[in-house]
Design brief:
This protein is mainly α and 117 residues long. The protein contains five helices and no strands.
Length: 117
C-alpha cells in the first residue's frame, strides 16, 4: 500500500512541475511577442519618417546600387518584412502609404492590435 501512495504523490509532483514549466514558457513567449511588436512598431514609424522626408536615407532605402551582389542568400529587406507584418501586398504600396501620415499611423496601430504574423 505504501508504494501506491508514493506513486500517486510522485505523479502529482511531476504534473505540478510540468504545469509550472508550461506557464513559465507561456509567460516568456508573451514577453517575447510584446518585444517583437514593440520593435516592429518603432521600425515602421521610423521607416515612415524616412520615406516622408525624401532625403539621402530615402534614396538608400529605395535605390538600386550598381556592382556585384555578395555571396550567399539574399538578406531580407526591411520593406518586405514591413509588408508582411502590415498585410500589404508590395513594397511600392508601402511607400505610397507612408506619404499619408494618418493612414500610415492607422496601419501601424491596426497591426499592433492584431499582433505578430
Amino acid at each position: 500500500m505504501q508504494n501506491l501512495d508514493n506513486i500517486k504523490t510522485s505523479k502529482r509532483q511531476v504534473r505540478g512541475r510540468l504545469e509550472a514549466t508550461e506557464m513559465w514558457f507561456l509567460r516568456r513567449m508573451k514577453t517575447k511577442r510584446a518585444l517583437i511588436n514593440k520593435k516592429r512598431k518603432r521600425q515602421a514609424t521610423f521607416f515612415g519618417h524616412i520615406m516622408r522626408r525624401e532625403r539621402q536615407e530615402h534614396l538608400v532605402t529605395t535605390g538600386i546600387f550598381m556592382g556585384r551582389r555578395g555571396r550567399g542568400r539574399l538578406r531580407e529587406k526591411t520593406t518586405n518584412g514591413l509588408a508582411s507584418w502590415l498585410g500589404v501586398g508590395s513594397t511600392v504600396e508601402i511607400i505610397k502609404m507612408t506619404r499619408e501620415h494618418d493612414v500610415w499611423r492607422g496601419m501601424i496601430a491596426n497591426a499592433m492590435r492584431h499582433g505578430t504574423r
